[in-house]
Amino acid sequence: MSRPDIAEVVADVYREAGSRLAAYGYVLTGSHHGAEELVQAALVKTLVKRRRLDDHRAIEGYVRATMRTLHIDGIRRDATWRRLVPKVATPDPHEHAEHVEDHDDISRALAGLPPRVRTAVALRFYDDLTVADIAVAMRLSDGTVKKYLAEGRQRLAPVLGVSADEPERMPVVERSER
Amino acid sequence: MSDFHDALRSAARRHGEAVAPGLTADAVVASSVDGIARGRRRRATAQAGVGALGVAVIGLAGWLVLPLAGVWESEPAGPETEVNAGPWRYSVESEADVREGEPEVILRGAGAVMCGDELDLTPGFTVHDARALDRELFLEAELTTLGDTLGTPTAEPRPLDPDNPDGIMTGWDPDSPSWRIAGGGEVRSYRVATLLMDDDTVAGVVASSAYGSGGDEDGLLMGESGAGIPRIGHCDDSLDTWSNDPGDPMDTRLIAQYWSTSETGESTLLATVVVDPNEPANSSESPSIDRESPDAVESAELRQTQPAHQAFVVPRPEPGCSPLADLRDVGHPSTDAPEYTVRLPFRNDELTGELWGDEWVLSLTGGETPWYLEHHAWLVADDVSAGIPDPHLQWHPGLQFILRQGGVDPLRGDDCADDAPIPEVDGAVFLVIDGVDWGAVDEAGADPGGDRDGYQTWVYLGEAD
User: Fold this and answer.
1) List of chain B residues whose C-beta atoms are within 8 Å of the C-beta of residue A106
2) Helix or strand or coil: residue B267?
3) Separation of alpha carbons A124 and B5, rounded Å
4) SS3 category, B275
5) Contact B224 A19 (CB under 8 A)
6) B232 and B109 assigned to the same domain
7) Which of B30, B58, B150, B181 is in the most buried spot, having the most CB atoms within 10 Å?
8) Is residue B75 part of a domain?
9) Which candidate, B27, B275, B42, B293, places its Cα nearest to that of B141?
10) Picking from A57-61, A125-129, B48-52, B358-362, which range would have the lowest pLDDT averaged per residue?
11) What pLDDT score does B434 carry?
12) Residue B395, SS3?
């Protein structure tokens, strides 16, 4: 079987999964521009490593995983340099919470979360990862992840129209759309 | 909404649908994939070539060494333990400081630099848009070590992240090379990256740091940060460990780019600066954003007077890398400075452009005890070719009291580059004495009023040429 043209694969992925990937990128980064850059960077990285993938659904899974890795690595890298040299100006929000789209309260609340809190929220409530899995992915302790999730939930619940104290409901079977 | 998950997904879905139409750069992504793949193939080919060459060289070395086996005890080559170069400072203050031209490299977005790219990088600023000229753009950089950056490295490598002692940042090496940088300007954002070059080909990339105004408006941004050294083949834009065999730091180029917002709201690349560690240092100060320039003042009129010298009462500045020269740069001593006269018994009354050597500056005959004896003192000139522009002087008791270069400078910050003064000066020269002859000031009717602590005397010595 001949290898598909990369441009065609990219177009297929964008057409079939672009909005889902962008939504995921948006929850991770808190911004439209950040989501766009993250999706594109992850897609390039995925296709470079897996040029023989021709199933856009398989690619979508790889791209999502790569987005997560790139984003977490980015947060860690920035945090490390801030720790190394504490006299740092405001980190570029164009990198992780690109400019704060003034679309709605949810946008503002999401963009206003600290990057690690927002990432924990995305992994928990968008990826449906367990606390233990999040801890592994973010290389944090379970307790730190729980603290981040509580903070994220506390700050997002009012704008999402749900109670911050509502018991968390997790699916008992894997979601088919994933 | 009944559930946090569903509410978040629903909100995100709307934004995802809004972003998705913008994901149309299929050709860009595809060309990026192809470009990276080409770069990898090129590197793989090159490394294979290097490997083959290495085998050949080792084979030859084996033949050469064999007859001497047992005579030489050799130890494995260790890593470089010290890396220091610079510091450099580049700024955009006028057209004379910069070149104009198209960017040789792009650090973000479509077309961002990647491994395999062939670049022709020229040190210094290149302006891509005329609006860069009035933005006070600058970049300071120094090639140093993580240990230097962190201050007091421990004997054993330690985790950088105390919350994550087993993480990938564990075991960092204090001797690991690192760029230390400070930069900024009136921009929307700027970004710094380190490229590892194999001749003209990018062999490694680390996007190090980025700063932004947080919106679509430009703002005055300044930041200090560090930049890691990529290893050969490190091409995925992330630095995952500090001690993972970094490339030769002298093969790196530090790149900073500055963006503004155009009238249509687009992000516009203003300028690029390239720092090449092989260039000679052009600054005496380590990168810092803490240096605040004093306000400009109207300079006092200077007059050659003999045998007494014109002297001014000037507030003592805060410590810095060149605090007295900074004051002179903005015009001090000012017309508001109280003025009086000071008598200095000079042995050499002639000022030349070679005043800064390790020579005595002022000597007193035995028995004299003028008020300034053993006060801290400095020399300051209008123009100094390089090095410390306001060197501290040292009293030496003996047959004569000799004021010569040296001593512990209480006004010099701890993180300043320890450069030696350079003996090329021009313009007005002052001897700054850390104190004031208040009796003479009162006699001259030049009392500055208020608290009399924290003042110095600037003695105008004349013009050097």
Assistant:
1) 11
2) strand
3) 9
4) strand
5) no
6) yes
7) B181
8) no
9) B275
10) B48-52
11) 94
12) strand
Same domain, B218 and B337: no
At A108, list the tokens. Answer: 């503002």
Say what the ipTM of the complex is: 0.74
pLDDT digits (tens, 9 = 90+) for A44-85: 777 765 545 656 667 788 888 888 887 887 776 555 444 444
Q: How many other CB atoms sit within 10 Å of the CB of residue A104?
A: 13
**With an 8 Å Cβ cutoff, are B221 and A93 in contact?**
no
| A173: closest CA of chain B, how far (Å) | 15
What are chain A's domains?
A: 6-160 (1.20.140)
Residue of chain B minimizing CA distance to A167: B3
Cβ <8 Å between B225 and A90: no
3-state DSSP assignment of residue B430: strand
Is A22–B20 a contact, with Cβ atoms under 8 angstroms apart? yes
Chain B, nearest residue to A128 by Cα: B5
Q: Which of A18, A139, A170 sits opposite B20 (nearest CB)?
A: A18
Query: Residues near B62 by Cβ (< 8 Å), separated by ≥ 6?
Result: none
The values of phi and psi at residue A68, to 5°, are: -60, -45
Of A85, A90, A125, which is closest to B224 when you measure between CB atoms?
A: A85
B167 has pLDDT over 70: no
| Bond before B287 cis per omega within 30 degrees | no
Q: What is the pLDDT of residues B291-320, one digit of tens each?
A: 556 677 888 899 877 778 899 999 998 887
For residues B443 and B433, give the distance between their C-alpha atoms in angstroms, rounded to a whole number. 19
- Is the model's pLDDT at B191 over the cut of 70? yes
Q: Do B212 and A90 touch (CB under 8 A)?
A: yes
Dist CA B10 CA B363 (whole Å): 83
Q: Examine the domain organization and report whether B271 and B128 are in the same domain.
A: yes
Query: How many folded domains does chain B comprise?
Result: 3
Query: How much is the pLDDT for A97?
Result: 41
Across the interface, whether the CB atoms of A169 and B216 are under 8 A apart is answered no
Looking at the domain assignment, is residue B290 inside a domain? Answer: no
Between the CA of residue B21 and those of A22, B16, B18, B265, what are the distances in Å? 10, 9, 7, 19
Candidates B16, B163, B216; nearest CB to A20: B16
Whether the CB-CB separation of A44 and B36 falls below 8 Å is answered with: yes
Of B160, B211, B290, the CB nearest to A83: B160
Strand-pair partners of B144: B178
DSSP state of B2: -
CB-defined contacts A:B, below 8 A: 208
What integer pLDDT is reported at residue A132 of this predicted model?
A: 83
Rounded distance, CA B146 to CA B194, Å?
15
